[in-house]
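Obj.: predict assembly geometry.
Materials: sequence records (below).
Method: joint structure prediction, all chains together.
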Amino acid sequence: GQQLNQSPQSMFIQEGEDVSMNCTSSSIFNTWLWYKQDPGEGPVLLIALYKAGELTSNGRLTAQFGITRKDSFLNISASIPSDVGIYFCAGQSNTNAGKSTFGDGTTLTVKP
Amino acid sequence: DTEVTQTPKHLVMGMTNKKSLKCEQHMGHRAMYWYKQKAKKPPELMFVYSYEKLSINESVPSRFSPECPNSSLLNLHLHALQPEDSALYLCASSQAAGGIETQYFGPGTRLLVL
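Observations (raw C-alpha cells):
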C-alpha cells in the first residue's frame, strides 16, 4: 500500500525559532493535508493542498504541495509554546477514495 | 458549524461489557469515518460510511460494530473487547467519500479496556 515518510520524528526548539518538517512518498497523491494534534484531542486540520506546486499559508504556517506530487513540507515561523504537539501529514489519491494515508508524525517541543 | 462531537470523552470497560461510542456532525457531510489511534501513532482507518451505507471496512474484528442511523450520526458498538483495544477512537466526517475530501476530526473517545 501507499506509505508516507515523515521527518523529522521529533524536534526540540527554542521559542522564536522557525520549524520545517516534510513528508515524502513513493507514489503520487492528489491532496496533501497537514494536521496538528494536542494530547488527548483529535487532529485539527491546519492546511489542505490540492494542486501540485501550491503554496498556502495559514498565519505563521506555510505548506507546499511538491511539484512531483510525491512530497509536501510544512514550515512554522517564529514558534511559540502553544505550537507544541504532534504534526501529521496525510495524503489522498484519486485511486484510493475515502482513505487518507498518514505519516508517522513529527513531535514538536518548544522551550520558552 | 465545523465541529464533529464525540461522546463519551473517556470510557473504561471490562472485557465482558457492551458499550457504544457516539459521533455527531451538523456540517451536512455525507461521509463519516471511525479511526483507532494508539499513543504517538497516526490514526488507523477502521470504517467509512458514505451516504449512510458502509463503504469501507478495514478488516476490523467483529467485536467492533459500526452503525449510521442517519447522515449526522455515527455509532460504534463495542462488545467483548480486549485490553489491546485500548486506544483513542476518533470520528471524522467529510463532504463525501468518493474522491478527494478533506476530513474533519472529532476530539475522540479515550477507551480503556480492563
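Conclusions so far: The two ends of chain A are 41 Å apart (CA to CA).
To do: check interface contacts against the pulldown list.
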